[in-house]
């Protein structure tokens, strides 16, 4: 997501960059490509990623002494494993960044990609406004796979209508992006099924949907420009994605387009409140959810337009179908080879996750009618369906978060956002978490570069125990609630939120595995995988993110299990080996007298002991932060 940052930034037209920014880019460019030396100590640590159960004295000392040395001398984050096929695919991304560079992003010394994009949008507005309509307008679909309530699409449709020319829609299938972003095959399949639905809906409006598979992600801008030339398109619209590479690509494309007298306009749509709009009393961005949410509610209330819907496009002018015949005849490509599902899996996923915006709206309305009022009381219970299960729709954009909040608000007492019926206001505040994590990503873009939000936590020494990691992914840790959740993920490509927190805490605190391994695995599995929410959730659970709670909040899997799955209904569903275990033993069969049933059915004993793990985690976190561990 951030690979192209140097190249693309350097392509940004100098006229649109302030002198302070160009100075920063010059320095940035230099330091970015300067050889990054990995200190001898870091290399040694990397080689010695031993699987000690309790933090050894030497590991404490090495982490502690590292923490106390100068920040600017820290070229890698702790003992994080950066080899191929690990937490980052180095074929797509440059070497790890330093804590010093994180500080430069924090202070604004290095311009944030979203701010650069905003500057370019502002500085080129006049020139873009002067572009005369061509023979068609283009909407470039990304994670906004719907016709209704879509800001970018609606602007494109208005432009086309005012010039009485047709609207063309485009979606690019990018196998390299899927690879670089660890997109799950189930997610790719969901998107392709959604495109089939959209193609029909757009077809009924005489609007062609071009779905092109482009092998090399770098070739995407060139393809768009060629398409424009071929169909004499002079206006392009898209909705903004907030990951670094995407922001930088759009910034570069605005200028490339203008060079060819094409106006390219990226707009905010994926979030209800645009990142950067909310500031604390001292002019800073919020890093804590609760005050951020208060400010979000105030902002949305004061700007009611933010929740107003955008109409879906009208019909293309007659003649569009003939003029663009070749585009209408194109079909949706199959999933790329690296993301193919088996025939059986494809069928199963289609039944489990029907695609498209009609399905999304049906689900939303059913949830609002039947479950939203009980949401506040039930949402933490993973058994049954207690939440909306709309995340796949929010993250692919088959449903706008704006639509969800508006529809929920409209059925609340006096249309409150954060008051009135508890279930409704609680649900709205959950949807707002999406916005929050995208605000975090936009303001602290280094979280997109495999650095923790609290980058001072980057010196924690993690375990890289492959066996533990595999048992975690397979749901064979001997902790029933963890195993049930991990099996739900493998089977449904979805996991309940409470369980996501439990398994993430277990991975990072009990197993002390690098939380980024879990983050990556989730993206490889989840149908609703979303970089900002996933990174935010993992950071929160590993205490390296925006959670104001300190690292010593460590979930006890047994207590979580007893509290949120009291009757073991969820465990019995996903861990059938334990279905005959009675009463409270379901939460800990080997510790509560159900060892015979568990052993007979092949259910494993716990792979670690929580109390010891807790101590080890505390000690390792402390050492990583350079605190006294004696
Ligand atoms: C470790 C971890 C990883 C996560 N990874 C993802 C991810 O990749 N994609 C994703 O969409 N969500 C992620 N979440 C957030 C959350 O778990 C899911 O959004 C939620 O479980 C989806 O179920 P639902 O649609 O029934 O949610 P509901 O409870 O019905 O909530 C409504 C909507 O609000 C949003 N939402 C709810 N909780 C959160 C949250 N904590 N953070 C951000 N948005 C939220 C979702 O869009 C959701 O559809 C993660 C959470 C954790 C702890």
From TrEMBL:
Database matches in InterPro entries: Crypto/Photolyase_FAD-like_sf (IPR036134), Crypto/Photolyase_N_sf (IPR036155), Cryptochr/Photolyase_FAD-bd (IPR005101), Cryptochrome/DNA_photolyase_1 (IPR002081), DNA_photolyase_1_CS_C (IPR018394), DNA_photolyase_N (IPR006050), Rossmann-like_a/b/a_fold (IPR014729)
Keyword Cell cycle: no
Molecular-function GO terms, alphabetical: deoxyribodipyrimidine photo-lyase activity; DNA binding; FAD binding
Residues the record lists as binding FAD: 375, 387-391, 427, 430-437, 528-530
Entry keyword Endoplasmic reticulum: no
Domain Photolyase/cryptochrome alpha/beta: 135-272
Entry similarity comment: Belongs to the DNA photolyase class-1 family.
Cofactor(s) the record lists: FAD; (6R)-5,10-methylene-5,6,7,8-tetrahydrofolate
Cofactor, how bound (note): Binds 1 FAD per subunit.
GO terms under biological process: circadian regulation of gene expression; entrainment of circadian clock by photoperiod; nucleobase-containing compound metabolic process; response to stress
Keywords: Chromophore, FAD, Flavoprotein, Lyase
Species whose genome carries this gene: Microthyrium microscopicum
Protein's name according to its UniProt entry: Photolyase
């Amino acid at each position: 997501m951030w690979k192209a940052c140097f190249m693309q930034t350097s392509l940004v037209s100098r006229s649109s960059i302030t002198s302070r920014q160009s100075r920063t880019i010059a320095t940035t460019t230099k330091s970015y490509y300067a050889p990054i030396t990995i200190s001898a100590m870091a290399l040694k640590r990397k080689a010695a990623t031993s699987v000690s159960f309790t933090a050894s004295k030497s590991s404490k000392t090495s982490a502690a002494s590292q923490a106390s040395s100068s920040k600017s001398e820290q070229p890698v984050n702790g003992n994080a494993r950066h080899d191929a096929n690990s937490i980052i695919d180095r074929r797509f991304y440059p070497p790890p960044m330093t804590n010093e560079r994180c500080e430069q992003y924090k202070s604004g010394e290095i311009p944030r990609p979203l701010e650069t994009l905003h500057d370019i949008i502002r500085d080129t507005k006049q020139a873009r406004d002067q572009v005369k309509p061509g023979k068609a307008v283009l909407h470039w679909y990304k994670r906004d796979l719907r016709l209704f309530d879509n800001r970018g699409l609606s602007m494109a449709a208005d432009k086309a209508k005012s010039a009485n020319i047709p609207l063309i829609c485009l979606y690019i299938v990018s196998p390299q992006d899927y690879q670089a972003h660890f997109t799950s095959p189930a997610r790719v399949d969901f998107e392709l099924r959604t495109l089939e639905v959209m193609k029909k809906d757009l077809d009924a409006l005489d609007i062609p949907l071009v779905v092109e598979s482009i092998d090399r992600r770098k070739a995407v801008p060139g393809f768009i420009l060629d398409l424009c030339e071929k169909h004499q398109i002079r206006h392009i619209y898209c909705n903004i994605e907030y990951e670094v590479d995407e922001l930088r690509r759009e910034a570069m494309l605005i200028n490339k387009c203008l060079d060819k007298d094409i106006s390219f306009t990226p707009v905010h749509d994926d979030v209800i409140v645009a990142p950067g709009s909310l500031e604390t009393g001292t002019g800073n961005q919020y890093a804590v959810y609760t005050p951020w949410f208060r400010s979000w509610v105030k902002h949305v209330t004061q700007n009611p337009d933010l929740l107003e819907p955008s109409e879906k496009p009208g019909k293309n002018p007659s003649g569009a179908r003939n003029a663009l015949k070749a585009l209408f005849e194109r079909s949706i490509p199959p999933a790329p080879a690296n993301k193919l599902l088996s025939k059986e899996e494809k069928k199963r996923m289609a039944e489990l996750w029907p695609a498209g915006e009609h399905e999304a709206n049906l689900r939303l309305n059913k949830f609002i009618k039947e479950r939203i009022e009980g949401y506040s009381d039930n949402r933490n219970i993973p058994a049954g369906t207690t939440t909306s299960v709309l995340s796949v729709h929010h993250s692919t954009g088959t449903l706008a978060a704006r639509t969800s909040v508006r529809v929920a608000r409209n059925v609340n007492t006096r249309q409150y956002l954060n008051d009135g019926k508890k279930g409704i206001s609680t649900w709205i505040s959950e949807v707002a978490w999406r916005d929050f994590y995208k605000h975090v990503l936009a303001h602290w873009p280094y979280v997109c570069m495999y650095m923790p939000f609290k980058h001072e936590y980057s010196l924690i020494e993690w375990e890289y125990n492959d066996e533990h990691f595999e048992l975690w992914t397979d749901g064979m840790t001997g902790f029933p609630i963890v195993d049930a959740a991990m099996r739900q993920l493998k089977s449904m490509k979805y996991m309940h939120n409470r369980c996501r927190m439990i398994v993430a805490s277990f991975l990072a605190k009990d197993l002390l595995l690098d939380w980024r391994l879990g983050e990556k695995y989730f993206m490889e599995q989840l149908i609703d995988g979303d970089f900002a929410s996933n990174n935010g959730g993992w950071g929160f659970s590993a205490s390296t993110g925006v959670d104001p709670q300190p690292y010593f909040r460590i979930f006890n899997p047994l207590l979580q299990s007893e509290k949120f799955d009291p009757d073991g209904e969820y465990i019995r569903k996903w861990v059938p080996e334990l279905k005959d275990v009675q009463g409270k033993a379901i939460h800990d069969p080997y510790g509560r007298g159900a060892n015979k049933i568990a052993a007979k059915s092949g259910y494993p004993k716990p792979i670690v002991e929580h109390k010891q793990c807790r101590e080890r985690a505390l000690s390792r976190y402390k050492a990583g932060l350079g605190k006294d561990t004696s």
